[in-house]
Amino acid sequence: IGRSTLYKHYQSKADVLVDIHKDIFEHLFSGLSTSESWFAPEPPSELILFFERSRQLGINPFLLSYKLGSDLDYLISHINFQLTATIEKRLYNSFNDGDSSIPLPILALSISNLYRGLIISWFTNYQSSNVRQFATNIQRMTRALVVEAIGENAT
User: How far apart are CA 143 and CA 58, in angstroms?
Assistant: First the structure.
């Protein structure tokens, strides 16, 4: 793809990266599409696969962040927004907003912060840890947030 073609569709490199992350998030959360999946004790297979592939590829997305310069703040805020929006959409597809003691947008933001913090920790400190256990810990904490907001019997 040539530069002129790229900039017909995107205003900047950061916009390309935001779009890529949107697709990654859609896939990452595709296993959380029902109330049962949010309450499951085991993590979705997509989450385990995400960590396994990251480890196999030796990816550390933070190594290139210095090359984004002034686009870095834009990129971070838009990626965070996409992550929260993806989770919020999955929650609305799985639950009724009226069933929640915490508004679903606030719950989505909380889960988004949990995922973001732990994924960053994975890339910076925990890549040598057990992938399945790391993903299970994320699912258990996510489940705890959902149970607190919605209750265990809201399936």
Answer: 29
The DSSP call for residue 152 is T
Q: Report in angstroms the alpha-carbon separations of 137 from 15, 17, 101, 130.
A: 32, 28, 24, 11
The single residue listed with the structure tokens 């009226």 is 98
Yes or no: say if 123 and 61 are a contact pair by the CB < 8 Å rule: yes
How far are the Cα atoms of 1, 13, 32, 112 from residue 29, in angstroms, in the given order? 29, 25, 5, 11
47 with 135: CB under 8 angstroms? Answer: yes
* Segment 86-114, tens digit of pLDDT: 999 999 999 987 788 999 999 999 999 99
Give the CA count within 13 Å in the CB-facing half-sphere of 35. Answer: 13
- Count of CB atoms situated within 10 Å of the CB of 78: 18
